[in-house]
Structure prediction request, 353 residues.
Amino acid sequence: MTATDIEAVQATSAGRISRRQLLLSGSAVGAAYLLPMATYAQSGNTASGEIDMQGVEFNNNGITMAGNIYYPPGFDGSRKYPAIVSIHPGGGVKEQTAGLYAARLAAEGFVTLAFDASHQGASGGMPRYLDDPMRRVGDIYSAVDYLTSLAFVDADRIGALGICAGSGAAIKASTTERRIKAVATVSAVDVGAATRKGWDGKASEADQIATLDYVGQLRTAEAAGAAPTYGNYVPAVGDTTAPRDLQEAADYYLTPRGQHPNAPNRLLLTSVSYLVAFTGFDRIETLLTQPLLVVAGSEAGSLWHSEELHSKAAATDKELFIVNGATHMDLYDGAGVDTAMAKVGPFFTSKLA
Prediction:
């Protein structure tokens, strides 16, 4: 991108982006298209109560990824900052809890990137609403690629934060992505194990086989020209037959509390084959050596994932922090984020120093 290109981007932003804010020299500028910068309110977290957020696009093996970068208060493009990738839950988008944590971490001095998974949200990828966890792992590789290309990011101080299913992808990526120097999870879920065993970890093998038989029928029908079949990530609001965590997920995703138009609660059902095959915590006994923080609620039906992750990880520097009385969804927003951030912020400050 030339100086003329930078001026054009500044012009499209109605003058809101200064040259200092676009101080991305060399290949760093060409790594992404910079969208207009917005102000993101974070009351009580910075002296001004505000940080800057900017939309970006980056390449992921031919798919255009949509992300938001959050800049620390007093951002200076001539400096080198530690950076963190924030990975959203299954069915979520960057504007929800992943963006909230990214903004909070930016307020503590990190350049942070929250992005939409491929096939989801504003990112590209066909078919839409495909959820293939290994593709999400590839998304993280590309997000790290992008961060390393930015002139103001210290490529030796990059961390990853995963929330819910984003945790399983973050852990899987961290086992083979050594550029990730520290990893934290909030309400962790290995989505492969959850699909195989059920939310509470008690589903039978017979249930798995029946589900996969059904998915096979769907794939055969679609191969013959039938329209794709979609399901829901979370149940309807008020569905008391669902596990408590998933009832609370409906309250988050399907009400003004956390609802976003780019997260329509749609899952391409043939994704189940990919979900069942995924093993988010595979080989963590040998490969997950980076510092690890695992944050989970004591009342979360998903707690078994966090306990397994902490127990099996090879890292000698690891901590399981249980938030007493909290459910899975309590850590997505509100006071639960304050509690989680009291551990997550110092963790990354220490490990990415």
About this structure: The CA atoms of residues 172 and 280 lie 5 Å apart.
